[in-house]
Design goal:
By secondary structure, the protein is α/β, with parallel strands linked by helices. It has one domain: Rossmann fold. It is built from seven helices and five strands. It has a five-stranded parallel sheet with strand order 3-2-1-4-5, sandwiched between helices. The termini are far apart.
């Protein structure tokens, strides 16, 4: 994805933040995340981290996780976004659309509290103009698609050419 193709605004959720700070994140995923962050900065894009996602992240974050978030938040292209009046209005639109189907969960098989948080994350991103969400959570991605956002997992992010290894062929050695 070139800088011209990079979305102007992307929303991420708690599992993105967890992957960013976790020592258990696969090396390829860390490369994708770092390339994504570098690309966002170069493209002068904005990455929105909704406060409901921050709350989920902080539940399991240790001191190192808190420090990582504080450093991330200081970057000019990162916006730690409040769930404000405009986001509440957008969230209500998602809820209202679901009620129109006579199923407040809108076919999502998850606890109601989780569905509400997922909708708050998407509503916050939408208010700030996000056109893409990065999330491992199917509920978050489903809600994003319902409001016209693209949705990707970390594994679907671009893997930079510079990190791809080429296989070297060695001639057989003589004994």
């Amino acid at each position: 994805m070139s800088n011209n193709d990079f979305p102007k605004c992307v929303v991420v959720d708690a599992n993105f933040l967890i992957a960013l700070i976790s020592s258990g994140t696969l090396e390829d995923d860390m490369i994708r995340i770092q390339h994504f962050l570098d690309s966002a900065e170069k493209a002068k894009a904005r990455i929105v981290i909704p406060m409901p996602a921050v709350a989920e992240y902080l539940v399991g974050a240790d001191i190192a996780g808190l420090e990582t978030f504080a450093k991330l938040e200081k970057k000019a292209y990162i916006l730690a976004a409040s769930f404000d009046r405009a986001a509440a209005f957008e969230c209500a639109q998602l809820d209202r659309a679901a009620l129109g189907t006579k199923d407040k969960k809108d076919g999502i098989d998850a606890p109601w509290q989780k569905i509400k948080i997922d909708r708050q994350i998407i509503a916050t991103g939408k208010v700030h103009g996000a056109t893409l969400v990065i999330s491992a959570d199917e509920g978050v991605r489903t809600n994003a698609r319902r409001v016209g956002m693209d949705a990707k997992t970390i594994q679907e992010l671009e893997f930079p050419e510079s990190a791809k290894q080429t296989k070297l062929e060695f001639p057989p050695q003589k004994p």
